[in-house]
Task: structure prediction
Amino acid sequence: MSSTGQHSIIPRRFASILVPRASRLAPLLLTALPLLAAPIDETKLPAAATNTVDFLRDIKPILHASCLKCHGPEKPKSRFRVDDRAALLKGGDSGVAVIPGQSAKSPLIHYVARLVPEMEMPPEGKGDPLTPQQIALLRAWIPCLRTPSPRIAHRRSHLAPRASRLAPLTRP
Result:
């Protein structure tokens, strides 16, 4: 019996084994939730941009203006970060957000295109919705995530501000 006088569903001798295991399964269950939801109508997505997409010119401004406030390095919402390639590919509490090479199947694109109720990004009041042109650029960029760019692979974070790498000059 529990302290409230009711019987527990889990016998006390098994609680120390089962409860930690259940907490480890939570991320898997959260990842499976989108599979149980209604299918996404991919015909509502803008087509991927056909021009060459440059991260610094095209993508970084979108992520900085619309995503970084909530999904940056300090206290990222849902433990999802967009400031680092590895973190972006890892996903967050809701599972994987980007599927390299499959932008139409990537939940991030569904969220910014506002195709998933209750998961519209940026949320109402937190920023303007992305334009179809911005979504098209993101869709064209996602296939590029399959392999890291040699130009930016050495950086830990692509968007987060960082201190200068050079030490200040001092007089001897």
In short: Residues 151-157, 160-165 have pLDDT under 50 and may be disordered. The CA atoms of residues 35 and 57 lie 34 Å apart. Helices lie at 12-36, 55-66, 68-71, 85-90, 107-112, 132-141.
